[in-house]
Design goal:
Distance between the termini: 64 Å
Structural class: alpha/beta
Number of strands: 11
Shape: globular
Bound molecules: pyridoxal-5'-phosphate
Order of helices and strands: HHEHHEHEHEHEHEHEEHHHEHEEH
Number of helices: 14
Largest sheet: 7 strands, mixed
Length: 375
């Protein structure tokens, strides 16, 4: 009964906060809107949403084909095992995770539960907009701190803001979207050790698998230690399953219990089976995809350096390029050249975010970028 009431309350809050969904959707598709429907070239290269052009691994495609004929069933009885497998892949137990429709769902529930009219969401600017816009739509205060000169989060400012507010939810995306910069694990160590009272740390690790730097690490060990930390993970990025909508939050069981109360549903059995198949060959899949991405990313960085074009040192599957002028010129012009780059990210108005695509896609990106850069 309690949980039904909570769910009903959540639905009401969501409809009150419907603006957040509209905003998020609008932002995700704003880029496409710069080219009118019908005018979108068939061979448009989409480098605007940090998707993985490789798509799901072959083993996942097979697993999905196998389950399709029986997808008329809910398959509820399988989910205990599926969740244990996902948890086990991070050396966690099933009571330390909750799955969601992408990591978006668990980010939503974490923001809803761990912020309040007196407990702010605290983050950096710019950061991934979804949690920030959701907090605003729910009427929760939002405090945004400045990035350091190297575009990484200043963990001391985050802790100070939480202390000043007598607690809150610190949202730290690592590596950060849209900057692709990453916070070193020594800084995250400091933040976890110095979390003010009444404060929870939400680490969004959507892009953690793309990190090569040895001093940047996942925060999942803090979950194992029972700290006040939630880690959001997704199968949308390195696993190439954005359209399948599978993600999870990892946290100590008392936090997971709270997040689970607002869980909307089980995930689709098609996505679940795709994930199970991929996790069975996880090490090879992640290693190969990371190596391929890192090579293409390095080549783009080298190309930019040769032309004295500045960029933020990337740790994710996208890159922030300093265009030296308002990036809107690139954002508005490049789609007509067959390449869709990322949307604007104020206050970094001169920066253009580009997702790392395939090698031929990046060749097309370089041509289009250079045409606009030289104009
Ligand atoms: C930082 C970050 N977190 C979370 C998400 C949400 O992804 P999904 O809901 O597909 O897991 C995205 C999507 O681009 C993202 O950039």
């Amino acid at each position: 009964m309690d949980s039904m009431l909570t769910r009903r309350g959540f639905a009401t809050r969501l409809s009150l906060g419907a603006a957040a969904f509209r905003i998020s959707t609008e932002m995700a598709y704003a880029q496409r809107a710069t080219v009118k429907a019908g005018e979108i070239p068939k061979d448009m290269v989409w480098l605007n949403a940090n998707e993985n052009p490789a798509g799901p691994p072959a083993v996942s495609l097979d697993a999905m084909r196998d389950v399709l004929p029986s997808s008329g069933r809910y398959h509820y009885n399988e989910f205990g095992q599926i969740e244990s497998l996902i948890a086990g892949s991070e050396k966690l137990t099933a009571d330390q995770i909750v799955t969601g429709a992408g990591s978006s769902e668990v980010l939503h529930t974490a923001v809803d539960i761990f912020t309040s009219p007196t407990r702010p969401l605290i983050s950096v600017t710019p950061a991934y907009e979804l949690p920030i816009e959701l907090a605003r739509a729910l009427g929760r205060p939002v405090v945004l701190t400045k990035l350091r000169g190297d575009y990484t989060a200043d963990v001391k400012l985050l802790a100070e803001a939480a202390d000043k507010a007598h607690g809150g939810l610190i949202y730290l995306c690592n590596p950060n979207n849209p900057t692709s910069a990453a916070v070193k694990s020594s800084d995250v160590d400091w933040l976890v050790a110095n979390l003010p009272a009444n404060t929870t740390l939400l680490m969004d690790e959507a892009y953690i698998h793309f990190v090569e730097a040895p001093d940047v690490k996942s925060a999942i060990p803090y979950v194992r230690q029972g700290k006040e930390v939630i880690v959001a993970r997704t199968f949308s990025k390195i696993y190439g399953m954005a359209g399948l909508r599978v993600g999870f939050a990892a946290a100590k069981p008392s936090i997971i219990e709270k997040l689970s109360e607002l869980k909307a549903n089980v995930i689709s059995i098609v996505g679940a089976r795709a994930v199970v198949a991929a996790l069975k060959d996880r090490e090879n899949i992640v290693r190969e995809r990371k190596a391929g991405l890192a090579k293409t990313r390095r080549e783009l960085c080298a190309w930019l350096r040769e032309r004295n074009v500045k960029y933020i040192e990337p740790h994710a599957n996208f890159l922030m390029i300093d265009t030296g002028r308002n990036a809107k010129e690139f954002i508005n012009t490049m789609p007509s050249l067959g390449v869709a780059p990322g949307r604007p990210f104020p206050p970094l108005d001169n920066m253009l975010r580009v997702t790392i695509g395939t090698d031929p896609e990046m060749a097309k990106f370089r041509d289009a970028f250079w045409k606009v850069y030289k104009s």
